[in-house]
Amino acid sequence: MKKAVEYEINRIISILVKDQTPDGSWDYAFDTGITTDAYMIILLRTLEINDEMLIQALVRRILSKQEQNGAWKLFYDEDHGNLSATIEAYYALLYSGYRNKKDKELLSAKQFILSTGGIEKASMFTNIMLALTGQLQWQSEFPLPAEIMLLPLSSPINFYDFSVFGRANLAPILILNDRKYQKKTKRSPNLSDLFVNRGIVHPYDQPEEWRNIFSSMKTELQKVTNPNQNIQRLAIERAKQYMLNHLEPDGTFYSYFSATFLMIFALLSLGNPKDHPIITKAIKGLKLMACEIDGHVHMQYTTANVWNTSLISHILQDAGVPYSSNVVRKANNYLLSRQHYKYGDWAIHNPNTLPGGWGFSDINTFNPDVDDTTASLRSIRNLVKHNSSYQQSWYRGVNWTMSMQNDDGGWPAFERNVDNKLLALAPIQGAEYLLLDPSSADLTGRTLEFFRNYTHLNKEHPAIKNGIKWLINDQREDGSWYGRWGICYIYGTWASLTGLAACDKLSTDLIVQKAINWLKTIQNEDGGWGESCKSDINKKYIPLGVSTLTHTAWAVDALIMFSTKITPEIQRGIDYLIQASDKHDWTTAYPKGQGMAGGFYIHYHSYRYIWPLLALSHFKEKYLKQ
Fold first, then answer.
1. At 85, phi and psi to the nearest 5?
2. How far apart are alpha carbons 362 and 306 in whole angstroms?
3. Parallel, antiparallel, or unpaired: how do β-strands 543-548 and 600-604 relate?
4. SS3 for 483-525, per residue?
5. Residue 511: alpha-carbon gap to chain centroid
6. HSE-up of 576 (CA within 13 Å, CB side)?
7. Within-domain flag for 177
8. How many domains does the chain have?
9. CA distance 433 to 412
């Protein structure tokens, strides 16, 4: 057993060392399926940028992901397929010019689209893309008026009540909807044959509560604006300036593909030519996010270099790689170069704290998040202990993380107290995920673990006590926790237990017992664990039916934390990690991260190495040291 565990640890370490890039980072792909690939083709063709090599490469990747029934899926077990993804793929393939409606791939895709309700049943964001490229008419009333840009922070609802991800996507949408902008070209396909009921697109179903909120927004506007001013023009200008003030050095808007895509069209709608420097730089920035996966080109939604690097570096150190080694030294130099020294929107709700966090992507300079910050701090901890010149970076990061705790005791991802429940009523697809940034079990648990294990903050400190209280109140009846940024209940339960273990909770505590018992009951016969993306859609745990390396690593690591000896469940989990280490099937490509339930899932190509290495290292450290 000991030899097998050590062999697997060393095998993973050697892979990670080999895969490190010259700048010290790890650039494993941030894989979000084919939507960004399709949108890139549509963007390039709409702007008449004939980058044929890129377009052909994206066509090949999209076709490689098509199911036998003609559909495209967001995840392997997504029933028969995803209507919106299939419409996007069909549209992009046609617009590329390298496929036509008589091709068998498109004929089968069309059949799936029509049998599933037609183009009019697409998601809201697909409808917006279709409207701005001339395939649908804009609906008369978007659920949010552009004038919300003008409401002060004191209003019951204002623009900064939305999450940063929501603002990034909504700012250009507000402009586009106001202008009812559309852009077609001579090459634009005709998608009229994808309608089941021509022209009947489901309207925004606005519940009475939201209509009342909508009305109160307009009342607030009358109070705070000059009647002689053109309010609409002011609002559009404010939305435009918001976009331009949040450009990253590479020209992308917040480094998000969707926000940048929408911004380009919003700038066009305001009269800017398609070769405007801001637009051309934004397109160049998007192209820089292209990567290669299994021989195919993929347009990443963003890059994940900081996240990959911070996790890998600190887990390598956990596995015994010295902080002074060349691989860790290069990683830490990279991370230190990516620490933020600019204020971002986070300061609006947290005005008395200096910058000091870390963001997610390689080119993120002003949008830090709590999880990347604690992961980066874990990585540099040993360096700071041995070299006092890095203490300023350490303390700025620690202070920023502490300051981000919500008033309810938990930690969010990006901004404090952005959890206005009124916004959950908005008739916008995924409003709960797109518009809010509440405390979550995964962020709270991992942040508690960081403070207790890496800063040794006393467990009687109010921040720790409030965090524990929040976690206890958030536990589900079955003993699990919902993890907002992973899939899903296994992830949330593991992350919560890391925090509780660091806060000296024992296996005899009821809250821990319930969680451990739940993990044991969902273990598969092969010793592993696996969870479906359907969990976050259905708001309850849905088993995947098979095991995955990442889910198994999370679950077995949680069990290791609270057991003084190797239990049968732990042994079987470790055996699975070793025996399945060279698996390369659909389970290794199955998404383990989520962006928006039912609409946006993430396959982290680094996770098959990161989390098994963590679990195996903890197993070795706890049980095999003798």
1. -60, -35
2. 6
3. unpaired
4. CCCECCHHHHHHHHHHHHHHCCCCCCCHHHHHHHHHHHHCCCC
5. 29
6. 29
7. yes
8. 1
9. 12
DSSP 201-222: PPP----HHHHHHHHHHHHHHH
Comparing CA positions, the residue from 258, 279, 256 lying closest to residue 269 is 279
Q: Residue 205: its pLDDT value, please? A: 61
**What percent of the chain is modeled with pLDDT above 70?**
95
| Pairing status of strand 296-299 against strand 290-293 | antiparallel
d(CA 338, CA 24): 12
Distance between CA atoms of 106 and 93, rounded to whole angstroms?
8
Q: Residue 114: exposed, middle, or buried by beta-carbon count in 10 A (0-12, 13-18, 19+)?
A: middle
CB 573 within 8 A of CB 529: yes
Closest-CA residue to 481 (of 531, 545, 417): 531
In a domain, residue 69? The reply is yes
30-31, strands of its sheet edge to edge: 30-31, 600-604, 593-596
pLDDT at 201 over 60: no
* Nearest to 553, CA basis, from 583, 532, 536, 577: 577
Q: What is the pLDDT of residue 427?
A: 77
Q: Which residue has the tokens 């090459």?
A: 187
CB 85 within 8 A of CB 35: yes
> How does strand 543-548 pair with strand 529-531?
antiparallel
pLDDT of residue 263: 98
Give me the CATH number covering residue 255: 1.50.10.20
Tell me if the bond preceding 533 is cis, omega within 30° of 0. no
What are the tens digits of pLDDT across the range 152-191?
A: 898 888 999 999 999 999 999 999 999 999 999 999 999 9
The SS3 assignment for 73 reads coil
Return mean pLDDT, the chain: 94
DSSP 186: T
- Contacts of residue 230, defined as CB under 8 A and 6 or more positions apart, other chains included, come to none
Residue 269 belongs to domain spanning: 35-299
CA distance 392 to 394: 5
Rounded to an integer, the average pLDDT of 272-297 is 97
Cβ distance 345 to 365 under 8 Å?
Answer: no
Q: CA 325, CA 410: separation in Å to the nearest integer?
A: 36
Q: CA-CA distances (angstroms) from residue 501 to 484, 493, 559?
A: 20, 12, 11
Full DSSP string of 133-152: TTSSPPPS--SS-GGGGG--
* Whole-angstrom distance, CA of residue 506 vs CA of residue 561: 9
Q: Which residues are catalytic?
A: 371
Q: Rounded to whole angstroms, what are the CA distances from 114 to 62, 64, 118, 164, 200?
A: 20, 22, 4, 36, 14
CA distance 59 to 37: 8
How does pLDDT run across 464-480, given as a tens digit for each residue? 999 999 999 999 999 99
Residue 68 is assigned to a structural domain of this protein:
yes
Question: Predicted confidence band at 207 (pLDDT cuts at 50, 70, 90)?
Answer: low
Residue 626 lies in a domain: no
